[in-house]
Amino acid sequence: MPHFWNHTNTVAVFPEELIPEFWKNQACLSVEISRNRNNQFGVKALQRGGGKSRKLIIDFDSLPNHIQQKLGDPRKVEHNLLYFYKTDSVAVDFYTNFKRPDGSYLNPDEQQRYITNASVLISILKLRDKHQIERVKLGMSLKGLNTFLCEESNSFNAILLKRFDIQHNLPTHPTRFKEALNDFSTPFNEWPYNFAAIIKDIEGKRKQNARIVDDVTEAILNGLFANISHKPTATEIYRAYEAFLSGYAQVYNEDTGEIYDPKGFPKLSESTVRLYLSSWENKAATYKQRSGDRQKYMGQFKPPHQLERPKFAGSLISIDDRQPPFKDLDGNRVWFYNGLDVASGCITTFVHGKTKDGIIIEFYRQMVRNYTEWGFNLPDGLEAESSLNSSFTKTFLQEGYMFQNVRIEANNARGKRIERDNGILRYNIEKKRPGWLARPHAKSESNQEGNEKVPQIPYDQIVQGAIEDIYELNNSSHMEDPTKTRWEYFRDMQHPELKPTNWKAILPFLGYHQKSSCNTGYIKLQGKARAIAQNGQICLGEPLINVMKSIEGKEVDIYWLDDNAGNVMKALAFYEGRFICEVQEMPKYNRAVIERTAADDEAREIQSSYVSTVEGFIRHHEKALMKVNIFQQPKPEPKNGFFIPGMEHNRFQPQTTDAEIIDTDEAEKMAMVPSVSWQNSFFK
Q1: Which of residues 662 and 22 earns the better pLDDT score?
Q2: Mean pLDDT in residue range 173-192
Q3: What CATH number has the domain bearing residue 459?
Q4: Is the pLDDT of residue 485 over 50?
Q5: SS3 of residue 633 by DSSP
């Protein structure tokens, strides 16, 4: 806005008031001033710009007439409010950020209208304060002030239209204007004015009141659309609703048992029913319940995450099953299960079969084989679908076991990166092979079915071709670093913080199981006597003895996994569910001394140490044995206390080793007892 210069009658204008409406930029304005420097006409500068504190100022009187009329001459004030009016920045902040309870913002026209109304009211409040001070000074009454302010507001609209191409719509009657001004002038929360007071329909109820279809009616239409089993169209729902209103059908709530009364519901047109059923908020719920294809539903309604590709290989592996687009001679397709390192785009693990049965456990075994033989640690993260992996979430797919971070989702194709790379395999590589099957509804014409009959391929040829295609993909250029292949990127960009394989956590679930026993320090596995080991090294000394104390002569459980050549890659021994040791093949050496190599000498030294550890332990304990014996005391003679009352021989006499003297009477009595043999008793 033009202003007086240095307390004189000269009016000054800043460049930003002229740019870009009248001049394109300040450089063009400066050229105009320089061109007219020596002329008596043209745009002149009151102050030349330069440096940080010196700003260019233009003489208002040197501007063309149309620009002067547009800006307004403060010496010829057309209206009292022009002294105070300007677009209020606080009002701009409030109305551009204001939201109604339903979450909707003001549209641009509403924002502009309320910003203008608020700016005018603020200028009127400043005018009111000035007039109140002047009237008090002059001893005049304040009566009629509000009427004066209302008239100033009404007449200011013509000035706003002329100067700024806008108008306000404040009340024109003094009484209503006074109420609006008083409501607005009251501070509200942290705002200096009550900006919300001039917003019409602040709750957004005007739109709701105009609705023919209320919430209950809308709920009934959605319920019928979602729950009728044969997936009705909007026209069928309209007819069902009409039958309900006419009394030919009953509508009830299955949860509450309530039967709805048709008298309380409005008559609707078919277009209204279709409009409400097709609105996004209703389709998002009803289509989810009606949809039989979860992938299509999520593609239409569920917003996907936007993710960046990892930088380091091993950070995340994405796995999924797929069927290469070829049919074998029986008309069946082969099943593959692939694992894609997301950072490198390299398929690091794959297995195949005629069905999906048992393929998933072999996939994880193969992953351990590959990464171990390459000398890499297993990936940190896993993303997979739940159909085949859900049964392992309580075992080796728990976080911290085989992988540190696990994300398993049901039927979310967009949630797995490998789905997009499967498309590269299908359309960039496999498509070149004979027997390739097009998708039934491919969007691109080049990927649609041709007019030639597609031949069927032998099963082994399909498998061989699919493996060759994986090799071709892995040897192709990396997506972001074309100087390397996908395999080279995987090999060179391994994450430095990947954790070593936790064999104890995964082998009991992934490994093959075998019962065995430990005898003379060896555990037999696959017909070979293998040594006790820890951390990949054969045990010697005290660690060997400690293990033998636990399992020597006892039955143990062996969990082991083979490598790609069929040899034992890793084997662990458990006793009563507790890990005991690793089982490792003992290195052998040549029986003939003349043929031994340095490796043979090392193997002989290990075996000798292994044996000497056991023998040394036995000798040590043999020497520690104490010479202890036992001297047995003779057992005491039993006391013959048994007798039968009334019998003459009521006691038994112990036998004596020496000859006993028996008196005559007793001897005679004994001689009178007849001796009866068993033969006499039987035959007589």
Answers
A1: 22
A2: 89
A3: 3.30.420.10
A4: yes
A5: coil
Instruction: Evaluate the CA torsion angle 75, 79, 81, 85 in order and state its sign.
Output: negative
Q: In the predicted model, what is the mean pLDDT of residues 40-45?
A: 83
What is the distance between the alpha carbons of residues 8 and 57, in angstroms, rounded to a whole number?
15
Determine the 3-state secondary structure of 638 from DSSP.
coil
321 with 453, same domain?
yes
Helices assigned H by DSSP within 392-531: 418-424, 459-474, 486-492, 503-510
CATH number of the domain within which 34 lies: 1.10.10
* Torsion 89-90-92-97 (CA) sign: positive
pLDDT band at 683 (very low <50, low <70, confident <90, very high): very low
Residue where a domain terminates, one of 161, 190, 207: 207
Q: In whole angstroms, what is the distance from residue 459 CA to residue 413 CA?
A: 27
Cα 518 to Cα 81: distance, rounded to the nearest angstrom: 104
Asked whether residue 240 falls in the same domain as residue 279, the answer is yes
- CA distance linking residue 367 with residue 388, whole number of Å: 16
For residue 332, give the amino acid letter.
N
Q: How many CA atoms lie within 13 A of 591 on its CB side?
A: 0
CA gap 237, 544 in Å, rounded: 79
* Burial classification of residue 217, based on how many CB atoms lie within 10 Å of its CB (0-12 exposed, 13-18 middle, 19 or more buried): buried
Q: Which residue has the higher pLDDT, 659 or 123?
A: 123
Q: Which residues contact 225 (CB under 8 A, 6 or more apart)?
A: 232, 234, 237, 277, 282, 286, 290
Question: Radius of gyration over alpha carbons of the chain, in Å?
Answer: 50
Rounded Cα gap, residues 159 and 81, in angstroms? 9
Q: Judge whether 20 and 65 are in contact, CB under 8 Å.
A: no
**Which strands, in side-by-side order, build the sheet including 405-409?**
346-353, 335-341, 316-322, 381-385, 405-409
Nearest CA-CA partner of 130 in 116, 114, 148, 157? 148
Report how far residue 481's alpha carbon sits from residue 490's, in angstroms, rounded to the nearest whole number: 12
Q: Rounded to whole angstroms, how far apart are CA atoms 98 and 203?
A: 12
Q: Give the largest Cα separation in the chain, rounded.
A: 185
Omega prior to 500 cis, within 30 of 0:
no
Which tokens belong to 443? Answer: 């969007």
Place of tokens 């005007």: 206
Q: At what angle do helices 145-164 and 174-185 cross, to 10 degrees?
A: 80
Residue 139 confidence class, pLDDT cut points 50, 70, 90: confident
Q: Please state, in angstroms and rounded to a whole number, the distance separating the CA atoms of residues 252 and 458.
A: 59
Does residue 499 lie in a domain region? no
Please count the structural domains in the chain: 5
Instruction: List, in sequence order, every beta strand (DSSP E) within 305-380.
Output: 316-322, 335-341, 346-353
Which whole number is the average pLDDT over 565-594? 93
pLDDT in tens, 56-111: 888 888 888 888 777 776 666 678 788 788 888 899 999 988 888 877 888 888 88
The mean pLDDT value for 124-151 works out to: 85
Domain range for residue 254? 211-301
Q: Per this entry, what is the length of the chain?
A: 684
At residue 47, what is the residue type? Q
Q: Do 428 and 358 belong together in one domain?
A: yes
Q: For the residues 160-187, what does the mean pLDDT come to?
A: 89
> What is the rounded distance in angstroms from the CA atom of residue 580 to the CA atom of residue 574?
5
Which pair of structure tokens corresponds to residue 157? 């609209």
